[in-house]
Amino acid sequence: MASRAVPSVPYERVPSPPFVNLTLSSDNNAPSGCHDASNYLEPSYHHIRSAGLTPPEADIITHKEPLVADDTSPWAYTKRRSAQRILDYLYLGPTAVLRDVDYLRREGITMAIVARDSLMKSHRFLSAERAQQELGITTEYINLASTYDLVRAFPAVVRLVNDHMLQVHNSQVQARAASGQATDPSTLRRGKILIMCESGNDRSAALVIGYLMTMFGCGMFTAIRLVGSLRFCCSLTEEVKRTLSTWSDILNAQTDVANDQQQRQNEEDRVVVESVEAMQVADMERHKRRIDDTEDDEDEAETDSDRFHGRVPFVPFTDPQ
């Protein structure tokens, strides 16, 4: 019956965004200098200016530790209920993980970031309150009204993670300095952040991917592939992938602007330094007086220098004989 149906009027499908095809090959859109092996990724300074960081601050946060995805480890379906370590200081999982106080204590989690629907922002999160009371874990909430709010959430999460890591580090350095103890960076306790959503597979996964794109300077495909290899149950919709593509464009634009501003500042500083040096040289030349300055160079005969010839030492006062 359906094969005999004919349209009453001509029609066509509503235009839709193109499908984002994820491949297993290397990311051709990754910035230059990005170590883009299939299961290995190193921290990069490429986007740190757009994140408001200096290279020393980035080193404090990442410890220059690479992301290594072990593809040989078997994935069990039950692992979706637990959290996976993406970086040595960043974990990804469902909100149910906050109920496991022993796990939080064992892993040393110091901060939790919960991505949730904005309709739930007025509800109490009892697991987070218990974790804060028993372990002192700080909880931050990212309220999302729609998938496209992720674009606004990416820089907020990057700032939350980095600020927390620096705060944990600096508080220990200041405490040891106040007590007169020497600071050995290898003995300092590291902050550890757990990023979660209801399932741990979509919103929170997108936030972790966006963080990797910022701090490791990699492209969207590389970050998705590495996070997916560590938490195999991640499931990103086309809308989520498009927000990540948008974040990649924003990062590149912010980095270009930050680099241009830095180049202009460097040029202005160079001009100022050269001007100061030129003024110092001119000032020295102006105050430097030589015997040649007293000679009259306009006369053809050196008559001006004749007055110095034949002079004998003159002593205005002498002792009586």
UniProtKB/TrEMBL annotation:
<feature type="transmembrane region" description="Helical">
    <location>
        <begin position="205"/>
        <end position="227"/>
    </location>
</feature>
<dbReference type="GO" id="GO:1990444">
    <property type="term" value="F:F-box domain binding"/>
</dbReference>
<dbReference type="GO" id="GO:0070372">
    <property type="term" value="P:regulation of ERK1 and ERK2 cascade"/>
</dbReference>
<dbReference type="InterPro" id="IPR020422">
    <property type="entry name" value="TYR_PHOSPHATASE_DUAL_dom"/>
</dbReference>
<feature type="domain" description="Tyrosine-protein phosphatase">
    <location>
        <begin position="82"/>
        <end position="250"/>
    </location>
</feature>
<feature type="compositionally biased region" description="Basic and acidic residues">
    <location>
        <begin position="283"/>
        <end position="292"/>
    </location>
</feature>
<dbReference type="GO" id="GO:0005737">
    <property type="term" value="C:cytoplasm"/>
</dbReference>
<dbReference type="GO" id="GO:0140096">
    <property type="term" value="F:catalytic activity, acting on a protein"/>
</dbReference>
<dbReference type="InterPro" id="IPR052449">
    <property type="entry name" value="STYX-Interacting_Phosphatase"/>
</dbReference>
<comment type="similarity">
    <text>Belongs to the protein-tyrosine phosphatase family. Non-receptor class subfamily.</text>
</comment>
<dbReference type="Pfam" id="PF00782">
    <property type="entry name" value="DSPc"/>
</dbReference>
<dbReference type="InterPro" id="IPR029021">
    <property type="entry name" value="Prot-tyrosine_phosphatase-like"/>
</dbReference>
<dbReference type="GO" id="GO:0005654">
    <property type="term" value="C:nucleoplasm"/>
</dbReference>
<protein>
    <recommendedName>
        <fullName>Tyrosine-protein phosphatase domain-containing protein</fullName>
    </recommendedName>
</protein>
<feature type="compositionally biased region" description="Acidic residues">
    <location>
        <begin position="293"/>
        <end position="303"/>
    </location>
</feature>
<keyword id="KW-0812">Transmembrane</keyword>
<feature type="region of interest" description="Disordered">
    <location>
        <begin position="283"/>
        <end position="321"/>
    </location>
</feature>
<dbReference type="InterPro" id="IPR000340">
    <property type="entry name" value="Dual-sp_phosphatase_cat-dom"/>
</dbReference>
<keyword id="KW-1133">Transmembrane helix</keyword>
<dbReference type="GO" id="GO:0062026">
    <property type="term" value="P:negative regulation of SCF-dependent proteasomal ubiquitin-dependent catabolic process"/>
</dbReference>
<keyword id="KW-0472">Membrane</keyword>
